[in-house]
Amino acid sequence: MKQFEKIIYVIIFSLLLWSCGSSKPAYSKVPSKTSSSKANLRNLTSSAYSKPSPEVKKILNDAEDYLGTPYQLGGTTKKGFDCSGLVITVFSENNYKLPRRSEDQAKEGKKIEIQEVKPGDLLFFATSSAAKVNHVGIVNEISSRGEVTFIHASTSKGVIISSLNDTYWNKAFLFARRVL
After folding, report:
1. Residues near 136 by beta carbon (within 8 Å), at least 6 away in sequence
2. Domain 2-178 fold
3. Residues 6+ apart with CB under 8 A from 125
């Protein structure tokens, strides 16, 4: 029976890791944007620069409170988060219910173009060659020069803020969705 329990544990662990994993480290430093960027951020709409609503500010403040929290596969508490666990926890704290897995979160709300993103929107990524959603982050800020930063739980550094200008995240980016 112990062998069966080990197999079940390995399967569950593998599914959670695949759903929210990152095969490369996430970088919190922002390299300069290249002209070949997959996520073209040059023509952001003027609404992207408008001040976030009080409800979005609250969500972002709650997410920022978790900065530095370690990565924990399947985690949904201050002890540790995975990417989708961070998203559901922060949104749940603000009375928004989202599915547990990043792949399922990617079906919620309205799909938007990257040029339309605003703070509080969700960004979805494929960090493996499967080209399937396996990572999610919350748009934190859009700078006046078009840099989009997002809060997420990285497997290597825990909850951090990263930039879509980073080559790794830019290449892994799939699409954005508005759930608020």
Report:
1. 20, 83, 84, 87, 102, 105, 106, 122, 123, 124, 125, 152
2. endopeptidase fold (from Nostoc punctiforme) (3.90.1720)
3. 133, 134, 135, 136, 137, 169, 172, 173, 174
The DSSP output letter for 51 is: P
Q: Which residues contact 52 (CB under 8 A, 6 or more apart)?
A: 60, 118, 119, 120
Going by C-alpha positions, the residue among 12, 17, 19, 11 that lies closest to residue 132 is: 19
pTM of this structure:
0.76
Q: Give me the phi and psi of 35, to 5 degrees please.
A: -70, -15
pLDDT of residue 22: 40
Catalytic residues: 83, 135, 152
Tens digits of residue pLDDT in 76-91: 999 999 999 999 999 9
37: closest CA among 178, 172, 142, 134? 172
Residue with tokens 């982050």: 137
Beta bridge partners of 150: 139, 162
Q: What's the rounded Cα separation, in Å, for the pair 22 and 18?
A: 8
User: Which residues does the chain have with pLDDT short of 50?
Assistant: 9-19, 21-37, 46
pLDDT for the residue numbered 18: 44
Q: Where are the domains of the chain?
A: 2-178
